[in-house]
Amino acid sequence: MNLIEIRNVHKSFADNHVLRGVNLAVEPQETHVIVGRSGEGKSVLLKHLAGLLPPDSGDVIIDGKHLYKDPAAIKWVRNNVSMVFQMAALFDSLTVFENVAFHYLENGGKTRAELEKKVARLLELVDLPNTQHLYPAELSGGMRKRVGLARALAADPQIILYDEPTTGLDPVTSEVINELIIRVSERERVTSVVITHDMKSAYGVGDRICMLYDGNIVFSGTPDEVRTSTNPIVHQFVNGLAVGPITTGEDEEVKSKAIEREAMSGSTIISRQ
Length: 273
Description:
Blueprint: E1 4-13, E2 16-26, E3 31-35, H1 42-49, E4 57-62, E5 65-66, H2 71-80, E6 81-84, H3 96-100, H4 102-107, H5 112-125, H6 141-154, E7 159-163, H7 171-188, E8 191-196, H8 199-205, E9 208-213, E10 216-221, H9 223-227, H10 232-239, H11 245-272
Parallel strand pairs: 3-8, 3-9, 6-7, 7-8
Antiparallel strand pairs: 1-2, 1-4, 4-5, 9-10
């Protein structure tokens, strides 16, 4: 049984039809990577899974519950789904301990001694022992992302959503984050959904990789299947090629808009005459 299912999901913002009938299935304890260029709607799709953004049509089903049709499903997501934000999103005025323990400090459920033990274990897991007393301003970008991951794990989630986890990091730190995603998946037995345009990261952490393009999933497969795909869109993207259907489509769109502007300009001149 799939833990996550997205069925024919559409989402528009004004005239921008971002998601155009997306279908996706994620199995329990799988790390599923969604790749695609900036602006393709990856973050929009992730927000649907986080219970933050309802679709215009279609279904988001998590743990067998229809997320935006069953009130109990939203509660389940709040308790069982965590998110690692692109820029970590730590609270600057709180220490590392307070950031990681935030869920319990706000909602209760654990004694101070239990929290100290839990936070220490999670910081060990992300290779940041003895940093509880530090503030975010005292941490590097990679360290902040690791604290963000520890915070996501604090509530013992079944699902972790990663929003561009290696963005803005140097290659060495990016590889550290990739290794942590793998370690967390194996040790904590969580299901992970990772969105990225970093193919090295996608190949490294993903059990399956799918590509979002023009509002749809155009390919889904194992890392090896993605590497050897003959789909021209996938081939251009994963190999970082300047020439191909992705950029050809862009050129046609630019030309079309230029023609439209020229036609509008001509109409304006005629109307003024």
